[in-house]
Amino acid sequence: LQRDAKGQYLFDLLCHHLNLLEKDYFGIRFVDPDKQRHWLEFTKSVVKQMRAQPPFTMCFRVKFYPTDPAALKEEITRYLVFLQIKRDLYHGRLLCKTSDAALLAAYILQAEIGDYDPGKHPEGYSSKFQFFPKHSEKLERKIAEIHKSELSGQTPATSELNFLRKAQTLETYGVDPHPCKDVSGNAAFLAFTPFGFVVLQGNKRVHFIKWNEVTKMKFEGKTFYLYVSQKEEKKIVLTYFAPTPEACKHLWKCGIENQAFYKLEKSSQVRTVSSSNLFFKGSRFRYSGRVAKEVMESSAKIKREPPEIHRAGLVPSRSCPSITHGPRLSSVPRTRRRAVHISIMEGLESLRDSAHSTPVRSASHGDAFAGPGRSGRAESSERVAVIADESYSPADSVLPTRGAEHSLELMLLSRQANGAPCSIEEEKESEAGTPAAEAEGELRALCPGAGGLGPAQAQQVNKFVLSVLRLLLVTVGLLFVLLLLLIVLTESDLDTAFFRDIRQTPEFEQFHYQYFCPLRRWFACKLRAVVNLL
């Protein structure tokens, strides 16, 4: 990669390799050394955006979820979106009832192994797949039952299409959560979907705001503000606190991009947005791509032979592991280096430390599997919960975010059940094998403990110092300009109409004779005294 190569060059190269034309829904994401995620900006140099040393690890994934994924023009695009949503389901970002979870998993099963064959698929064959963070035997039987009786004869493309149609109806479709806290200190997850802004607490959606109701988004430090204008001229401001200033800025940029993509009619309507009302303070950002309506119009004009799709088939899919030999849940190898283990519970709590917007802290296997005599944290890490009949709920990390390390300790909740914990390290390995999410899991590197002033804190201090210096520089510059204007008015012989009108005002004459002339004589006297001394 050339040093001056822009992000657009790398993205186009990748889409050409995948034979992908409907590429506006996708993006490239990477993680900086502080474990903060960023979207690669296509208008800037790739190398300059990276704070790490090469080789760079990046992830190709869905950035803007299609409003109607079944309406995508080409099968290759639908397949890549299918892989992304399948991965969202596996990692607990797509919540649904048990009945819906069984149907979605059955569609995946049909797409990967085809029709049920008693000779190839023995009793309990569905348990060899892992569609969710945690299975129950009852759910596995339901998945196998649907696969045997209802989906026979469906091709992989048809099963994937039906999967997308079902996933699109769920409340958490398209959710890419950002862990935050509300004004009361309660944990929450903010997300931007094709239909609007979502706030989730536990397994409930507490706020849903349509894009046309969002009037403004801004941030200051760790604080994120969302300005909403609803019916009857009702205006509200939602305030949330991100773990770090970098996470808050990432949240703000994601919001600006999503609103522009889904709300605007044309890309020519996109404007540069500032996070502050003062021109010398805050961040400025502009979405550089096409909007959803333009993408749909462009897709309708595609006329080519459908490209060949190389599906995984019977090859184990590490994002949603396919059939392997061994006991249940053994499709993901256990021989890992140090891992952060997560326990299963209700709600979106798994995403607190999912490294979407915040770093995670490492823990040893011994800590994660501590016996009953250990601390409450170790006990919490052992308890897991199966999928409830009402809703499927993802995992909850027992470790606090970096923001919690500094100020707010998150309350650790747990549920009693059976099974083994799933680790972030395992998720890291599993994500790397999916074509639609290549290498994202590898970005789940563990954050080492550090004492003293960390890199993030040092960066915050540097930003504050730079902001103060910038303010002082602007102030000195304005004073210098005013001084030059004053000298021109009082000492120059310029007789333009503008200067003449100012000089004839009573206020200027009073200032000139009572203040400026005495001050000039005083300076001249002091200057002569210094010259005489020399």
UniProtKB/TrEMBL annotation:
GO cellular component, one term: adherens junction
Name of the coding gene: Frmd5
The keyword Phosphoprotein appears for this protein: yes
Location(s) in or outside the cell: Cell junction, Adherens junction
Protein name: FERM domain-containing protein 5
Keyword Mitochondrion: no
Native source species: Cnemophilus loriae (Loria's bird-of-paradise)
CDD domains named among the record's database cross-references: FERM_B-lobe (cd14473), FERM_C_FRMD3_FRMD5 (cd13192), FERM_F1_FRMD3 (cd17102)
Biological process according to GO: actomyosin structure organization
Source domain of life: Eukaryota
Domain FERM per the UniProt entry, residue ranges: 1-266
Purpose of the protein: May be involved in regulation of cell migration. May regulate cell-matrix interactions via its interaction with ITGB5 and modifying ITGB5 cytoplasmic tail interactions such as with FERMT2 and TLN1. May regulate ROCK1 kinase activity possibly involved in regulation of actin stress fiber formation.
InterPro entries named in the record: Band_41_domain (IPR019749), FA (IPR014847), FERM/acyl-CoA-bd_prot_sf (IPR014352), FERM_2 (IPR035963), FERM_central (IPR019748), FERM_CS (IPR019747), FERM_domain (IPR000299), FERM_N (IPR018979)
Annotated SUPFAM superfamilies: PH domain-like, Second domain of FERM, Ubiquitin-like
Region (Disordered) location: 353-379
Record keywords: Cell junction, Membrane, Phosphoprotein, Transmembrane, Transmembrane helix
Transmembrane segments: 468-490
